[in-house]
UniProtKB/TrEMBL annotation:
Organism, scientific name: Amycolatopsis saalfeldensis
Stated name of the protein: Transcriptional regulator, GntR family
Keywords noted in UniProt: DNA-binding, Transcription, Transcription regulation
GO terms, molecular function: DNA binding; DNA-binding transcription factor activity
InterPro entries according to UniProt: Bact_HTH_transcr_reg, Chorismate_lyase_/UTRA_dom_sf, Tscrpt_reg_HTH_GntR, UTRA, WH-like_DNA-bd_sf, WH_DNA-bd_sf
Domain HTH gntR-type: 28-96
Entry's Gene Ontology BP terms: negative regulation of DNA-templated transcription
């Protein structure tokens, strides 16, 4: 069955003040898959978190469309984190996305505020030469050593991200011997070493995971990911930490609070 557009009047959920209004072209016609996607959002809301989505054949009959149309609509909702597929089980309504604040708080603190248990699985804990790019960010020499901590990030035992932290080795000479990689690094630095985080610069972008990253996180390599780069410094203005955090775009979102500019 061809994917022809549906006239706007047939789609009651596509109201001018609705949350999906931006998806409607000015000519007022939308592709069939998008119309089904909008209707599925209402189905998802009615079913609730954890419910099984009706079978593909049932959805085809309900919306009078082809299987290809239903599959495209469902695939987009999976990519957006509204639905989740379980191999051999079916498609389920996904839980709400986790919200990570864009602030000087750790991953641990951000999740605990939402009543979610954070966790980590250690991949690497080592000393290594900084190299040119990292040295420039930390204002050290390329041959200077950094401490590298790579961990898979968990939320209620679900893998949601991969974090690589690089610290000036000269500032933390005994870290490898005393740090427990299962705990919050920020809490350890503050409470045990008296480190003060005075500021940071952070950048967020969308990427696709590498095959290695997708394997560690347990996600589809085609799934969009949120990549966060952060460089932190202390009261003296000298940077001592660089973090590269890769998060599943279907499970995590970022939030910040903005003030009025005078």
């Amino acid at each position: 069955m061809p994917t022809s557009p549906l006239p706007l009047p047939q789609l009651s959920r596509l109201s001018a003040d609705g949350p999906v209004r931006d998806g409607i072209p000015e000519h007022g016609r939308v592709p069939r898959y998008y119309a089904v996607k909008v209707e599925l959002l209402a189905v998802i809301a009615e079913l609730g978190e954890g419910a099984v989505l009706p079978a593909e054949r049932e959805l085809c009959e309900r919306f009078s469309v082809s299987r290809a149309t239903v599959r495209q609509a469902v695939s987009e909702l999976v990519l957006e984190g509204r639905l989740s597929r379980r191999q051999g089980s079916g498609t389920y309504v996904a839980p709400p996305k986790l919200v990570q604040p864009l602030a000087l708080v750790s991953y641990t603190e951000g999740l605990r505020r939402q009543g979610i248990a954070p966790g980590r699985t250690l991949i690497s804990l080592e000393r290594r030469a900084a190299g040119a790019g990292l040295a420039a960010d930390l204002r050290i020499e390329p041959a200077d050593e950094v401490i590298h901590i790579e961990r898979v990030l968990l939320a209620d035992d679900e893998r949601v991200g991969l974090e690589s932290t690089y610290l000036r080795a000269s500032k933390f000479p005994t870290l490898l011997e005393v740090f427990n990689p299962e705990q919050s690094l920020y809490a350890f630095l503050r409470e045990q070493l008296g480190v003060v985080f005075d500021g940071a610069e952070e950048r967020v972008e969308t990427v696709l995971a590498t095959p290695r990253e997708a394997l560690l996180i347990g996600t589809n390599p085609a799934l969009p990911m949120l990549l966060m780069h952060r460089v932190s410094w202390g009261p003296d203005g000298e940077p001592f930490e660089r973090v590269r955090s890769l998060f599943r775009g279907d499970r995590l979102s970022f939030m910040t609070r903005l003030g009025r500019v005078e």
